[in-house]
Give the backbone structure.
Amino acid sequence: MRRGLRFVPLGLLVAVLLELVVFVVVGRAIGFGLALLAVFVVSLLGMVLLRREGMRAWRGFRASAEAGQPPGRQVTDGLVGLLGALLLAVPGLVTGVLGVLLLVPPVRRSARNGVQRAAERRVSSMVAGDLFGPRRVRVRRGAPQPTAEPTVAEPTVVDGGRAIEGEIVEPGRQH
């Protein structure tokens, strides 16, 4: 993790330079006054959406918690929405486009799934189950493959080789 952090300043510099280049290109195409107005309007929209997405994420989290369901899906959806709104609020045309893309439902769903997969890789199976609920797995006929986690039991194919749904269960854990 720390190795990746050393590239953050370089990434921010590249992002600022990219924003400047795009602003100059757009400013020459439509005029600098209109380009500046577009940046202002997009940032204002982002600030409004930050509040809306934050409230939406909080309501989703509370609804999951009250229903006794794992809150992970609502939390990751809320984080993606907040990131999209934050990118809109940051002055810039490139960040504005990225922010809008993260608020489009198919892109948002894909980003949410990516965040969920990344979170599941970084935490134990038990914590991932508590956050996101039981995971669906596909079981295929053949020799079991070695797993990275010794606590995950190898599934057994029992339905004539057809894929069956299952759940990853840690030994000794009660459901």
